[in-house]
Amino acid sequence: MFYSVLTLFVLSFIGFYLGKRKSIKLSQNIKLASLPSYYGYLAMLYILIPTLIAWFVLLVGENFVLEKYLFLILKEFLISMSGSEVQLFFIKIKNLSEGASFGNESDLELLGAQKIIQFKNLFLLLTYLVIFLVTAIALYLVNKKISPTFKSQRHVEKIVNLFIQLCSYIAILITVGIFLSLVFETINFFGYVNPLDFLFGINWNPNKAFVIDSSDVIDKDILKDAFGIIPLMTGTLLVAFLAMLVSIPLGLMSAIYLAEYAPKKIRDISKPVIEILAGIPTVVYGFFAALVVAPKIADLGEYIGLDVSSESALAAGLTMGVMIIPFVSSLSDDVIGAVPQSLRDGSYALGATKSETIIKVILPSALPGIIGSFLLAISRAIGETMIVVMAASLQANLTINPLEPTTTITTQIVTALTGDTEFDNPKTLVAFALGLTLFFATLLLNYFALRTVKKYREQYD
Amino acid sequence: MTNLAKRKKAELRFRFYGIFSVFLSLLFVAILIFNICSSGIGGFYKTIFLTSIHFDQKLLNLEDNASEEQIRNASFRKLIKNNFDESFKDYSKDEIKQIKKLFYRKIDIELKNFLINNPEFLNKTTKVELTASTHIDQIHKGNFDRTVQEKHRKVNNFQLEIYDKFVEDQKVKKVWNSTYFTSGDSRDPESAGVASSVMGSVFTILICFLLSFPIAIFASIYLQEFAKAGKITDLIEININNLAAVPSIIFGLLGLGILLNFFGLPRSTALVGGIVLSFMTLPTIIVACRSSLRAVPPSIREAALALGATKNQVVFHHVLPLAMPGTLTGTIIGLARAIGETAPLLMIGMVAFIMDIPSNPLEPAVGMPAQIYLWSESSERGFIEKTSSAIILLLMFLIVVNFVSVYFRKKYEKKW
After folding, report:
1. DSSP classification of residue A280
2. Which listed site, A198, A231, B300, B359, has its alpha carbon 20 to 30 Å from A130?
């Protein structure tokens, strides 16, 4: 693979050189329509673009064709296997063909692995063939095109412009990709579980789906109250609420102090230091929450006579709140700073103190922006994964008591997908349904946040 | 109290709340960093016992001038047993067994490596630095309360006695733990290291950079310089804004659903990790690049156009180079965030137990944050220290990266 890429790039540079040389030769007699290097670029692009497209198609197609091919040649052996056995067999021989041998393979598996290696070699050969063929055609075409009147610069620029346009479409492509991957697997999941049971069920116990595996028959009645999202929702909202309880007052007051009171020196130092909190990886917070915060809270609870779980929502929520402080403070700082000075001056002129001005004039006029920052912070808290995975519990618990163990949507996505990932099992597929819920929730929050911020901006601009 | 005095008090109170909030936030930063540092510094050191070992030729079954290959194949178990029996003659068999447990369970490999590096000691007695077991390591570093009841301890009273004797004889030393930087993950905290996860992170970030940087620059150029206002352009902008706010775990699901299941890319590899992280960094770089493109004054464009450059030449030869410093700063910030990202890596299987240091992006790998997550799940006290040390490394790296980006901005940023 590495060498085929290298070959491709070497060939395209040769193309560049040949194109440039030919045009330089031509330009000794007549003036060219474009600079010689543009003829070179043209040759290069003519080689690169079709080969890269063909290469991508080959790469994507390889897996599909490989499985069809294996089915065809190993038909008589595979016919007696069930669907999941065939999948397992394929995985095993694929690993075997990559050299992961355990020394206990059957003859059939060895044969399969051998066939895969043959097939892959054939494909590599095909790749090289395509590269060289396209290069030859491209060079022939460019060679024919190069003439003093041919405006190669315009051609090159057209191709480049098309290319950068396609690059900007990637943002759409990613969103569509997210949406499709989530929706497809969610539909698969809803084949096992009724969407209504999922959205309104109050019991979360995905381990029930494990029991069914052995008998291979899926009993929908059992699944009915195994995948209810309500306990996860309450858990997520509880943790987010606790986080907001920390970050909103601290973040907002810090922003007010730094924007209105603090001398420039303190502001210049404090602001970046507080923003360090946002730059620390979340896994660090998770570690801190699980190892320092949770035991301290449990000790404190014991001291005042409360029974606090070591995996309480409190530890995760408080730590997350600290992480979110800079989100609230820097966004609020921006909107407070955007309030025109004339409003302040007017308030002072009427005899208000600084705090009265802030509370009665500045905050109300900055309110939409501040609420926008709160919404963004909430969406951040809902989607936060590592802190809750490490500090919150795995056990779903329909409660609003922050001292009890709770689980969240993100925690359950991680538990469903780490370890074995068999995609014919509702226990795994539910992660995508949860992901879709999370995606929509954050999308909605962001939409409202941006709308409130935008609405506010219109007032003063 | 007069009304004015009341108002003045309210003013002071409000101001105090502000100072208090800022102070509290700063305090959190300090506590977090202090806590991680104080518990992690120890992980860069390890405890060793200076033990005199006699490399008996017969016990090793080796000839004079044995080759490296022969030493490698020799069994050191007998040698260790013999040496221990000799050194602790006064103790019973059972006690010697317990003494052995003060040492790392793979000291035979350490002795082997020592002999390979110093073959001249064959048949001689010399002092060798042997790694202590993780429990002794923790006691020696003072992370362990010795007053705990014996049954709640991993080290019993007899072993503590022996350990104290070693300390008295100045046989115990704290040395720089170089294995931590050169080896991969391990089941034993004594020999676990960050090398494999550092390499995994390097490959992941490299792939992420190679993909996201050019694509983001091209996309920003198109959106900022070429695109005409319209529905598609609006759609792209909405999408970019949304992508910046999508939770990272969703990108992990995208990687699992599309890259692994649909395109069949290899699981647990830095390649997939890099692609997924590049989706997340794209919006950050695009936003940074567009704002720096916007900041380039129109006079530059007009001058180039006046000299007969085409629009492409204006953008690629003049505007883009001027916008580069700002773009690079944004890229560094985006990549720094990507390095610390863990959740998407969990989804695509980059949380495996990886002992070997990956040599290319197509080999199974873990990233630094995933390694931190893995170690933090372990109940062993020794691993907790290793986790904190890995966090220190990660944070130091992030600090350096941020300083570089600030430096870049200060040095190359132009005010027009």
Report:
1. S
2. B359
In terms of Cα–Cα distance, which of B62, B272, B87, B54 is closest to B162?
B87
The whole-number pLDDT of residue B49 equals: 87
Asked: is B195-412 a CATH 1.10.3720.10 domain? The reply is yes
* pLDDT on residue A77: 74
pTM: 0.87
Band of residue A20 on the pLDDT scale cut at 50, 70, 90: confident
Classify burial at A426, counting beta carbons within 10 Å of its beta carbon; exposed 0-12, middle 13-18, buried 19 or more: buried
User: What CA–CA distance (Å, rounded) separates B116 from B80?
Assistant: 16
Helix spans in A262-340 (H): 264-279, 282-288, 294-303, 313-338
Q: Which residues 343-382 of chain A have a CB within 8 Å of chain B?
A: 353-356, 358-359, 376, 379, 382
Residues of A in contact with B282 (CB under 8 A): 170-171, 174
Give exposure, B282-320, as e/b (b: 16+ Cβ within 10 Å).
Answer: bbbbbbbbbebbeebeeeebeebeeeebeebebbbebbb
Contact at CB, B373 and A284, closer than 8 angstroms: no
Which residue among A414, A439, A446 sits closest to B346, beta carbon to beta carbon?
A: A414
Chain A residues closer than 8 Å to B360 by CB:
2
Q: Do B263 and A446 touch (CB under 8 A)?
A: no
Asked whether this complex has an ipTM greater than 0.95, the answer is no
Residue A400: alpha-carbon gap to chain centroid? 30
CB-based contacts of A454, cutoff 8 Å, min separation 6: none
Q: Where are the beta strands (DSSP E) in A351-447?
A: none
The domain ranges of chain B are 42-177, 195-412
CA distance A199 to A315: 27
Whole-angstrom distance, CA of residue A41 vs CA of residue A163: 14
Q: Which residues of B touch A167 (CB under 8 A)?
A: 214-215, 218-219, 222
Euclidean distance between CA atoms A169 and A162, whole angstroms: 11
Between the alpha carbon of residue A76 and those of residues A51, A70, A72, A312, B188, the distances in Å are 37, 11, 9, 56, 47
Q: Which residues are CB-neighbours of B337 under 8 A, at least 6 positions away?
A: A279, B280, B281, B284
Which among B253, B271, B289, B373 is the top mutation candidate for probing chain A, defined by the most A β-carbons within 10 Å of its own β-carbon? B253
Q: How many CB atoms lie within 10 A of CB A450?
A: 17
- Whether residue A265 lies within 8 A of chain B, CB to CB, comes out as no
Buried b (16+ CB within 10 A) or exposed e, A262-299: beeeebeebbeebbbbebbbbbbbbbbbbbbbbeebbe
Six token digits for residue B35 = 């806590």
Report the range of poorest mean pLDDT among A247-261, B146-160, B311-325, B329-343: B146-160
Q: Do B215 and A170 touch (CB under 8 A)?
A: yes
Residues 6 or more apart from B376 whose CB is under 8 A from it?
A: A283, A286, A287, A290, A291, A390, B383, B384, B387
Residue B45's CB is within 10 A of a number of other CB atoms, namely 18
C-alpha–C-alpha distance, residues B116 and B66, integer Å = 10
At B45, which helix (H) or strand (E)? strand B45-54
pLDDT digits (tens, 9 = 90+) for A200-254: 888 888 877 665 544 555 566 667 778 889 999 999 999 999 999 999 999 999 9
Residue A146 DSSP SS3 = coil
* CB-based burial label for A72 (10 Å; 0-12, 13-18, 19+): exposed
As a whole number of angstroms, the distance between CA A220 and CA A309 comes to 34
For residue B47, the cross-strand partners are B174
Using the beta-carbon criterion (under 8 Å), do B26 and A273 form an inter-chain contact?
yes
Q: Are A18 and A46 in contact (CB under 8 A)?
A: no
Mean pLDDT, chain A, rounded, equals 85
One-letter amino acid at B382 equals G
